[in-house]
Amino acid sequence: MSLDLDIEELTPELWPALEKLFGANGACAGCWCMYWRLELGERYRDVKGPTAKRMMKALVERGEAQGLLAFDNGEPVGWVTLGPRRSFPRLDRAPSLQCDDADDVWSVPCFFIHKDYRGQGVATALLQAALKVLRKRGAKVVEGYPVKPPDGAVRIPNASAYTGTLPFFLKHGFTHVAVRPQGKQRVRRTLARRR
Ligand SMILES: CC(C)(COP(=O)(O)OP(=O)(O)OC[C@H]1O[C@@H](n2cnc3c(N)ncnc32)[C@H](O)[C@@H]1OP(=O)(O)O)[C@@H](O)C(=O)NCCC(=O)NCCS
What we know:
It comes from Pyxidicoccus parkwayensis. By secondary structure, this protein is an alpha+beta fold.
């Protein structure tokens, strides 16, 4: 099957497409892309499910949740979220993901591709589009938080790869800045302005 992808920036009008893509499970485990957005004191286990959906919908309506949707022949098939690092406050509460220049950094912390469309380059197309969008917005430093597959492994479960994988980000020009033996890593790419 060859995909005819159209990638669009999320707007309030596109909420129904995001809702359809995320489905009854809210992408995964009732997350609704709220995990990294939770403020101090908001616990994921209390929020996941309908509350997370309401929170995400409100952010989308106010234009405060940013991301890109991939469509194949009009069907929403993939999502990547992006935004200023400060819009994902939970990143700073993960000791291994902290940094000392967070105000100057943009983040690409989560992907969700419809299960029938995985393994066909949708996440790749979304990451490339995210970099273009961020460059246009004047972002200078972009971070990802990909998972390092255990030594010797190439694949990890798709659900565990929601932040992407380390080889995937390195292949797209990111540098490994916070090296850990396993789990989520911090990677960065500097974006130069195109003339
Ligand atoms: C992980 C995920 C984003 C990958 O999307 P995808 O569209 O299949 O990825 P692509 O086809 O663009 O592949 C990009 C690269 O990553 C690699 N890759 C993809 N899934 C992988 C996995 N599970 N383990 C290791 N590598 C993986 C591919 O081999 C490819 O490598 P290559 O460029 O060297 O060929 C997708 O499986 C997914 O959405 N999983 C569920 C995540 C989730 O639950 N998100 C919501 C959280 S609430």
